[in-house]
Structure formats: C-alpha cells, structure tokens
Design a protein that fits this description.
Strand order of the largest sheet: 2-1-7-6-5-4-3
Strand content: 15-25%
Largest sheet: 7 strands, mixed
Structural class: alpha+beta
Helix content: 40-55%
Radius of gyration: 34 Å
Length: 218
C-alpha cells in the first residue's frame, strides 16, 4: 500500500471515530450534571424538611386558646415579655390577671412563686374572680395566711406540664389534687376551661383558666 493511501486511510478512521468520542464526552458531562442536580435537589429537600420541622416545633411550643387574643402583643405583658420574668412578676404585667396578683400579694406568695423551680400555674382571670360568690371571696381575702393561701396553692403543681402532659391527676402545692381532662388545645380543670394555655415564664408554664379552682373541703 502506498504511503499516500495509508495516510488517507488513517484520516478516514480518525474522522469516523470522532463522533463517538464527542458523544462519550457529552454523556459524561450529562451524567455529572445530573448528579450535581440530584445532589442539589436532595440538599434542598433536606433543608425544606428541616425548616418544616423547626416551624412545627415552634408552633407546638406556642400559647393556644381564644383567650390568648386578649394578651398584649408587645411589652412586659406580652408572651415574649412574660417569658423573661418569674411567674408572679410576669402575671403582674398581664392585664387579665390583676385580681390574681392582688390575692398573691395579700397572701405574701409572690416571692415563693418567683423563687420556685419549674412549676405549672393555673391562673384564673379577673372575670373568674368576679364570678365567684362574693361572700366566699371576701372570706378568703380576709384570711390571707390561711384560706387564701390554700386556695392559691391549689392552683399550682410541681413541674412544667406541656400540653401533652397536662391531662391527668396532679398533686398541688396545697397538698391535694387537681384533675385535668382533654387533649390538643381543649382542656378542662374541674369546672374551669383553659382559655389560654402553654404560656411560658422564666420558671413556670401557665394555663389561664376561666374559673377559680376551689379545693375540696377536708
């Protein structure tokens, strides 16, 4: 075979092989791009799942109930403001709990409640106290170290009860028991209903209720 014929044959073979080489290169680039896209998509999905989980957790920790609408949206009496103060101080800044704070002050329990570690307080609203039999209220307010203290400590249990832990029977600081029924965001404590629950203070979880909880006479 002549030298010219050999050169022409090599050139033809090279030309025939070129499209296959280009196709192979194209396939590699496509696979790499697909892997990168898949990796990016996976990371994006993981990030979305993490954000969703975080949002769900925040919502689970948030106060609940129709009565929460009456709590200020800012300032020391707001949920954020109350979260930084111990419970008696936090209650004193909440406009729904003026009568309760007055009773706590009369019974000299503010320091005791503020210094307690991890408690749950069922806090009656001003309307709850107003609905009480006036003679019973006057009798309690007239005996701050006796009856009033018993009534107020009947509203407090040890430990910070989450909504998931709330239903059940709990021993109070008065030495008797409270029974909570319900689930989700619907709870009753005796004849009282929780109207704003899972309110956080620096040392307590508060459930605001629409009736005063009176201990059973022994």
């Amino acid at each position: 075979m002549s030298r010219m014929t050999t050169t022409r044959t090599v050139a033809l073979l090279a030309a025939a092989a070129l499209p296959f080489a280009l196709t192979a290169c194209g396939d590699d680039g496509s696979d790499a791009g697909g892997s990168a896209s898949s990796s990016t998509s996976s990371k994006s999905m993981g990030s979305d799942d993490s954000m969703s989980s975080s949002t769900d957790s925040m919502e689970a920790d948030a106060p609940f109930g129709e009565g929460c609408e009456s709590v200020p949206t800012d300032g020391k009496g707001s949920f954020d403001g109350m979260s930084t103060d111990p419970v008696a101080t936090a209650a004193s800044n909440n406009p729904l709990l003026k009568t309760l704070v007055k009773a706590v002050t009369e019974a000299d329990l503010a320091k005791t409640l503020n210094s307690a570690e991890d408690i749950t307080v069922f806090a009656p609203t001003d309307d709850a106290f107003a609905a009480m039999d006036q003679a019973t209220l006057d009798k309690a307010m007239g005996d701050p170290k006796g009856l009033l203290t018993t009534v107020l400590t009947h509203h407090v249990v040890e430990g910070r009860l989450t909504p998931e832990d709330l239903a059940g029977t709990h021993e109070t600081l008065a030495g008797d028991k409270l029974t909570v029924k319900g689930s989700g965001e619907d709870f009753t404590v005796g004849k009282a209903s929780v109207i704003c629950g899972n309110v956080q203070t620096a040392n307590a979880t508060v459930y605001i209720v629409d009736s005063v909880l009176l201990p059973t006479a022994k």
